[in-house]
Amino acid sequence: MELILSAGIGALTASGVYLLLRPRTYQVVIGLSLLSYAVNLFIFGMGRLRVNAPPILEPGGVGDLAHHADPIPQALVLTAIVIGFAMTALFLVVLLASRGFTGTDHVDGREQRGD
Amino acid sequence: MLPVFLFAPFGGSLIAIFFPSDQRGATAWFAGAIALVCFLATAGLYPFVAAGNVLRYQLEWVPQLGLSVSLRMDGFAWLFSALITAIGVLVVLYARYYLNAEDPVPRFFALFLSFMGSMLGIVLSGNLILLAVFWELTSIVSFLLIGYWHHNAHARDGARMALTMTGMGGLALLVGLLLIGRVVGSYELDAVLASGDAIRNDSLYVPILVLVLFGALTKSAQFPFHFWLPHAMAAPTPVSAYLHSATMVKAGVFLLARLWPVMAGTEAWFWLVGLAGLATLVLGAYFAIFQQDLKGLLAYSTISHLGLITTLLSLGSPLAAVAAIFHIVNHATFKASLFMAAGIIDHETGTRDMRRLSGLFQYMPITATLAMVASAAMAGVPLLNGFLSKEMFFAEAIETHLVNILDTITPYVATIAGMFAVTYSLRFIHSVFYGVPPSDLPKKPHEPPRWMRAPVEFLVLACLVVGILPGRTIGPFLHTAVASILGDRTPHYSLAVWHGWNVPMIMSFVALSGGVGLYFLMRSYLATGIEGPPVFRLLKGQRIFERVLVTLSWKWARSIEQGLGTRRLQPQMLLLIILALTAGALPLLAHGFELPPLVIRGIDPAFALLWTIGIACAVGSALQAKFHRLAALVLLGGAGLVTCLTFVWLSAPDLAVTQLLVEIVTTVLILLGLRWLPKRIKEPEREDIPMRTRFRRLRDFLLAALAGGGMTLLAYTVMTQPASETIASYFLERAYSEGGGTNVVNVILVDFRGFDTLGEIAVLSIVALTVFALLLRFRPQADSLEAPEQQRLQNAFDAGHPDRAAGDSIAEYLHIPSAIMRWMFPVTAMLAAYLFLRGHDLPGGGFAAGIAMSIGFILQYMSGGTRWVEERLRIHPLRWMSIGLLVAVATGVGSWLFGYPFLTSHSQHATVPVIGKVPLASAILFDLGVFSLVLGATVLMLIAIAHQSVRAPRAHARGARAEKEAAQ
Predict the structure, then answer these.
(1) ipTM of the assembly?
(2) Is pLDDT of B463 > 80?
(3) Stretch B198-202: mean pLDDT, rounded?
């Protein structure tokens, strides 16, 4: 379980980082999205992987870590997902505006040699 | 009582700025009244302070950091307050006549009052950090005052130089004060003054001393930082009379005197302060002789007199400290009056150049007499106040304090400096008021208005009275100030004019006669009219300062900018990733790292398959992002869905719901954006890819592999460790009993960590507004303007068939899905409501509900087109966002009404007929705010992009029209 998920996080990170270093704005946007998946999963994994652990308490009940899923990483990741969306939206719009202003979708706003 | 000294000037400043600019008199009256109130308040406090009491005022600011608004007035602070407010009143009166009708007078008085407030703040601060704040304020306000005539390049340069120097000093001072706070354990002045031995014996003493001195010496224009003061003379003369004689430059020596009990008396103090003081004393006086500008002469003379005070403070003996405080007062009186006199001369003749001025006595005899008396005080002529403190200085200079070369040469240097002082004072009087009548003056000189001269008269009278009857006039005030600094070390001293024939008297005599002789020897050289002293004029502080500035702010900045600048993203990204990799790897390398055992068994084949797909999607998306954007987007969505399923698998239903919804919105958003990107068609594989490109790709691939491998290793290592006890148990235990909900994640978000969530939704709204603002000015690239290829084909089809009208195909396109989408709107709204209401107890909540609802809206855009939706639905995302933020904040504020801290929530279960028991927590209101804001923000971003499709045809039509017109 852990092995598979770590490999997944690794693949997402590697793809994301590779795209971040590319010259086209769209590549960078996609790369950031991939990277944010990886980071969210990584933070989530810090609560350890639990299959079939109840995330919801019994009414009136008291939870404990031995029987319930860790809520902290979940709460962190939940807001991170929403903020990640906002970030993607912002970068997308910056991309569009930059292309409108400069006429190119190169990240530097002008074409470079050899790209 | 003490806050009045801050509220009155700063409040008055705020009011003064709103005076109409033609109300010169009224503004002056107002500023004068404020200054007078402050002065009277100071005067009224004298009996209290004179009894040896310290007046205190304390207001907690950030007690955890030791910061407080703590004000304290002892005798020394009182003396300074009296000086600041009294000269403040006089300068207001003077400025009333000095400023012209076309000057922005309200701005002047507003700045003036702020400056008075900042200066009072420095002397009254009972907390070191507060002192540093006011210190910086004086630097900033003095920048604005020196640059008051900002159309003048000299004023701008002078102001900038003053700000750079005093600002740098202020920064160093802040660090020094922080270190003092660290040594003492408190920033309170009382605590600091009580721990002199601790400071002097601390290993940090020398760094503290150097930093504090850097602050004090730059402020008081001491060598080698003196050069900013002459350039600050571009300020209006009332500013110079106030800032550069009585107040701002005195802040440095004030601080030295304030910290004198805890820092003075060591070898390091003696050498550092003494060297700076003596060098300034003699060089300032020497340079003053050769100035051609009246105010320049006075500026160098000020530098020299401040050097005298610094030298006295360096000696470390109580008697020297008395003399220093006495000279601070004396110098303020005679120098303020001299600056005002110089201003009058400038005002009534149109020039301050001593080469053009001469023989003015017959035109303005009263001003001339006043200036002569003040100059005599400056030169140290008997029966004037300057003489008394200079005598005390000479007496102290002779004393042996520490046996070293500096102490031995002090009396000689003092005498020489006294001689120079006589020379430049004599030069000022002789060249301006005597000699042949002036010939080429811009104006015909005459006496100034009656009330413009009044402040000068008052100050000169003060010089005389103090000079003749020191014990009866200044004596008690001086004693109060001295006692508050020295405490039980206060020495016996006498303020008498005549002490008999002793060594200081002889030194005075030598200085007086030598000075007069020197002036007559130098007359021929001075008559040549060369600006600046011989030899030294080649070595200009300003030139050096500018060269340093150019090197720092232009040459170095340029090379750094070219190397690391923000112009190119890729090198920065590369640096960032390498930095992140290094930061991640360093602790592992430094502390050793044990590879966890590889556990292969127990792998669920379905999970493995899931992630095989996930990894394939991620890699595929990375490969396709350049030429096949849609494919990359689909693959990205695939990776997102795998992530979402992973959350389901691993007991995180809340995350899965949110991820799924966000996935939909992100995909729609990027789909909307794709249309505006340039076409990029993959060329057939070229054989000759340049080496550079190959190398770059390989390098990036290796970096990516390293990053991915590192993350895998890190994640695997952490996840296979047994979990330790975390704060999670706290939330799990209390989620129901205190938060009233069974969904712990939601309870954390809206209750336990509600403040964080408030911050997050604020960020979300900022991003949404930024997106909106950016798109308001969006100008699409020309090649994206025409309709998409599919629409063109469809329109061509319509045009080709006579039975079809234009636009029919587009309307028919995906007709059935769009009908379904329209009908799904209420269902989506229902789903959102459902997600929202169950949020506290079951997976769901404001975030998920808000996004679900926004999907309902964007589906309408997709099915009906922008125009169709905007004709039918009222969409006010901005309003929803503001309501959401207000509701969330109001919920938080609401708990104040019940006496609880911000965002405390309350919960109980109410029984509703038919439905049954319903949980009611105040947190649900907060969640409602989250819902409304997330909905507003998401819809705003989505429709802002969607709306561009309306704009494009319009722009296209405009472009076509313009082309047609150009062709005709």
Answers:
(1) 0.95
(2) yes
(3) 90
| Among the partner residues A22, A30, A61, nearest to B736 by beta-carbon distance | A61
Angle at B245 between CA B4 and CA B300, to 5 degrees: 160
Cis (ω within 30 of 0) for the bond into B106? no
Supply B924's token pair: 């649900």
Give the span between the Cα atoms of B245 and B463, in whole angstroms. Answer: 15
SS (H, E, C) B291-351: CCEHHHHHHHHHHHHHHHHHHHHHHCCHHHHHHHHHHHHHHHHHHHHHHHHHHHHHHHHCC
Q: Mean pLDDT, chain B, as a whole number? A: 86
Tell me the backbone φ, ψ of residue B757, rounded to 5 degrees: -65, -40
B611-620: burial string, b at 16+ Cβ within 10 Å, e else: bebbbebbbb
Percent share of chain B, pLDDT over 70 = 93
- CA-based end-to-end distance of chain B: 80
Q: Which of the residues A79, A95, A102 would you substitute to probe the B interface, choosing the one with the greatest number of B C-beta atoms within 10 Å?
A: A79
Nearest to A88 among B653, B666, B743 (CB): B666
B749 and A11 in contact by Cβ < 8 A? no
Instruction: Please compute the mean of the pLDDT values over residues B182-190 and round it to a whole number.
Output: 91
Tokens 């234009």 -> residue: B806
- The 10s digit of each residue's pLDDT in B248-261 is 999 999 999 999 99
Q: Tell me how close the Cα of A41 comes to any Cα of chain B, in angstroms.
A: 7
Q: Which helix (H) or strand (E) holds B72?
A: strand B67-73
Which of B843, B429, B204 is CA-nearest to residue A71? Answer: B843
Asked if B173 contacts B259 with a C-beta cutoff of 8 angstroms, the reply is: no
Report, as an integer, the average pLDDT of A74-94: 90
Q: Tell me the residue type at B611.
A: W
pLDDT digit string, tens, across residues B602-612: 788 899 999 99
So what's the pLDDT on residue B729? Answer: 82
B744/A57 CB distance under 8 A: yes
Per residue in B538-593, pLDDT (tens digit) is: 566 667 777 777 777 677 777 776 666 667 788 888 889 999 999 988 888 888 77
- Whether the full predicted model's pTM is greater than 0.90, yes or no, is no
B527: helix, strand or coil? helix
Residue A111 to chain B, least CA–CA distance (Å): 11
Nearest partner of B191 among B255, B123, B262, judged by Cα: B262
Find the residue in A nearest to B675 (Cα): A96
Q: DSSP string covering B703-746, please?
A: HHHHHHHHHHHHHHHHHHSPPPP-THHHHHHHHHHHH--SBHHH
Facing B736 at nearest CB: one of A6, A60, A114: A60
pLDDT of residue A114: 47
For residue B125, the 8-state DSSP code is B
Q: Which residue of B has its CA nearest to A12?
A: B618
On the CB side of B721, how many CA atoms lie within 13 Å of its CA? 13
Phi/psi of residue B790, each to 5°?
A: -60, -45
CB spacing of A29 vs B670 below 8 angstroms: yes
- Identify which of B611, B626, B718 has the shortest CB distance to residue A4: B611
